[in-house]
Write a structure and sequence with these properties.
mainly alpha; 81 residues; 79% helix
Length: 81
């Protein structure tokens, strides 16, 4: 399970409490919000984490392709100094 700092957990709990209040007309206490946060992290967190990894891999792959193209553009033909 991903570990978050107390400040991060508080911010996420506050976001959950605000969402429940505004969208669902339901008040969540701090304990309920943290309990829900733990559930979401445990049961759904891997999906978000993996998507972040796939996105980073895709971005890095594109940058490596760009670097390869830049290197090829520097290539010189022998005897054409």
């Amino acid at each position: 399970m991903i570990q978050f700092s107390r400040q991060e957990r508080d911010a996420m709990s506050d976001a959950l409490k605000a969402y429940f209040s505004e969208e669902l007309d339901r008040e969540l206490g701090q304990f309920e919000a943290e309990f829900l946060l733990d559930f979401v992290s445990r049961e759904l967190g891997a999906y978000f984490y993996n998507r972040g990894l796939y996105d980073a891999q895709s971005l890095l792959s594109g940058r490596i392709d760009e670097l390869g193209d830049a290197i090829l553009a520097l290539e010189q033909t022998p005897g054409s100094n």
